Amino acid sequence: MENIEWNKFLIPYENAVEELKVKFKSIRSELLIVGAYSPIEFVVGRVKKVSSILEKAKLLDLELDEVENGIEDIAGIRIMCQFVEDIYTVMDYIYEREGKDMEIVAVKDYITNQKESGYRSYHVVVRYPIQTAFGHKKILAEIQIRTLAMNFWATIEHSLNYKYKKRIPDHVTKRLKKAADAAMVLDQEMSEIRYEIREAQKMFEIKSNIVSNV
Ligand code: 0O2
């Protein structure tokens, strides 16, 4: 495919990432406006690079015309939460939208079923409708939901994989597994005291608002 064709192919994916980011960021801002707790800390998103799409297509033995349905994360957003419990609240928001502005295609629970690497996260693949200048289209998008601790681990492991071209040395892999265990303990400990933490954050927010209104 020529560059221009790739650019055209990726338009609905770019739009989907932008729209999905806005939708989940809005949930956070709406909750904060009414003084409620937001299970969403922050949201990021990206469209897979053409080189990564081609790499994944090769890995999955896909022809170019199979990429659209065969690769589920060309459009991807990532939602970060403070606590593991928040991930399930975010999932409830997604279930509420099911059949309205998105359809759930698959749910991958790498929290209960931690990956061999140590990776933990909740993935939801959705079919998302997009209106472009060239017409209407439904595309696949992946929503990853994780805690800040899971994100810290995954980001570091991702960079190491990049550095070592997916062949991380054994001694580093062992350390990474230990770090993944530590991140899990961190999540569990934070969950235990989440009501205390939320109260403290609420008090801190009220104090900041008073100061900024002076
Ligand atoms: P990038 O750069 O993040 O886009 P499966 O066959 O279902 O196990 P599949 O089809 O690749 O795997 O989909 P899955 O499991 O939903 O994972 C896709 C994405 O999840 C990855 O995208 C990563 O973002 C993340 N991920 C999955 N496993 C790991 C892991 O062990 N470590 C880290 N750091 N991230 C992981 P890409 O395409 O790999 O890369």
Brief sketch in words of this structure:
This is Putative GTP pyrophosphokinase. This protein has 214 residues and is of the alpha+beta class.
The ligands found in this model are: ligand 0O2
CATH superfamily: Beta Polymerase, domain 2
Q: What are the secondary-structure elements, in order, as H or E?
A: HEHHEHEEEHHH
Could you describe the largest sheet, including whether it forms a barrel? 5 strands, mixed
The DSSP helix count reads 7
Q: What is the C-alpha radius of gyration, as a whole number of Å?
A: 19 Å
Task: Write down the overall geometry.
Answer: globular
Pathway: Purine metabolism; ppGpp biosynthesis; ppGpp from GTP: step 1/2
GO molecular function, one term: ATP binding
Organism: Tindallia californiensis
Family: Belongs to the RelA/SpoT family.
Give an overview of the whole structure.
- By secondary structure, the chain is α+β, with helices and mostly antiparallel strands.
- It has one domain: 2-Layer Sandwich (Beta Polymerase, domain 2), CATH 3.30.460.10.
- It has helices at residues 3-33, 50-59, 67-70, 84-97, 148-163, 170-192, 194-213; strands at 42-47, 75-81, 103-109, 122-132, 135-147.
- Strands 1-2-5-4-3 form a five-stranded mixed sheet.
- Helix 5 runs antiparallel to helix 6 (170-192).
- The radius of gyration is 19 Å and the shape is globular.
- The N and C termini lie far apart (59 Å).
- It binds ligand 0O2.
- The site of ligand 0O2 has 10 residues, from helix 5.
- Keywords: ATP-binding, Kinase, Nucleotide-binding, Transferase.
- This is Putative GTP pyrophosphokinase.
